[in-house]
Design goal:
With 118 residues, the protein is mostly beta strands. It is built from 1 helix and 11 strands. Strands 2, 4, 5, 6, 9, 10 and 11 form a 7-stranded mixed sheet that branches.
């Protein structure tokens, strides 16, 4: 069974930074090709924030380009989301996701709340 555990959410002022972490269970990380971060704000659909595949290629939502950076450290079975210049529109529950195929996700974490105060 795949387990993804997020951490690093919290309350931050507008303009501030946060780093989210997602640790995958050891037994599956080596077979995971894609890792991603999604978010869901109140009353809105879940949306892709950033995604990274095993070769290191990444893709970002237009709304976060230049502010957020996704990275992965395979030796730690972990993917990170560095979030800078946060604004109130970034307030959401952030979910880590993983998948065995390229640019596909099959597994989800429980989510971590990010709240940006203006």
């Amino acid at each position: 069974q795949v387990q993804l555990v997020e951490s690093g959410g919290g309350l931050v002022q507008a303009g501030g930074s946060l780093r989210l972490s997602c640790a995958a269970s050891l037994s599956i990380f080596s077979s995971i090709n894609t890792m991603a971060w999604y978010r869901q704000a109140p009353g809105k659909q879940r949306e892709l924030v950033a995604i990274i595949i095993s070769g290191g290629s990444t893709n970002y939502a237009d709304s976060v380009k230049g502010r957020f950076t996704i990275s992965r450290v395979n030796t730690k079975n972990t993917v990170y989301l560095q979030m800078n210049s946060l604004n109130s529109d970034d307030t959401a529950v952030y979910y880590c996701a993983a998948g065995r195929g390229r640019w596909e996700v099959d597994y989800w974490g429980q989510g971590t709340q990010v709240t940006v105060s203006s």
